Request: fold
Amino acid sequence: MVELKTDTAIDAMHEAGQVVARVLTALSKAADVGVCLLELDGLARDLLREEGATSPFLGYRPSFAPTPFPAVLITSVNDAIVHGIPTRYRLRDGDLLSLDFGAELNGWVGDSALSMIVGRPRPADVRLIETAERALAAGIEAAVVGNRIGDIAHAVGTVCREAGYGIPDGFGGHGVGRRMHEDPSVPNEGRPGRGMRLRAGMVLAIEPMVIAGGTDGYHAAGDGWTLRTDDGSRAAHVEHTVAITEAGPRVLTQR
Reply:
């Protein structure tokens, strides 16, 4: 069931989204060569506390997960696509790091992700991240009243496929509101004009995931959470929480 949010609710979600935006900005500045992933999670916890917000990630356990998620921040490095658990791993020069973060404030959730390069960038990684960001922008542009979920999916998938990248099957965006994951699902590939019609008041997390090797294969790592590319190639993940309004898409987690 899809819950349509009022303008007041969307404003409240924007406040939660701006907590997410501020924390992600701080984390991206803190992520540097030699920094431990657990240190980033600790910083995220401190910043959440300062904002008076809580984490929708900590303790979350979907049906596929063997254990509840143990952190407030998702850190996916290099061939990790999504759901990376922060560990004692220290970032190295040239690592491709994806940070996925959520916050709950006054009963509403914001959810966003970014990908970045630690230290000296490789041109291939720059292109990968830029493509993911272009796909996200295309998906947001398609998130207008009267379009359908398939229009968002098609917009995202077209950008990724035309660049020669893979898209992990079965993973994509979702509705956001009182809970982190609500209806509807928002695939990263699909046919235009298909699926649920978009209405004012829907709030969606649009989140392209892009695999550099061009294949769509992935597997779960030993922790039961992290998804890694089958071919060992690098991956990028970006995301914004977007409200569909009569005036057009409103990005609630804009940094």
About this structure: The longest strand covers residues 96-105. Residues 17 and 110 are 4 Å apart (CA to CA). The radius of gyration is 17 Å.
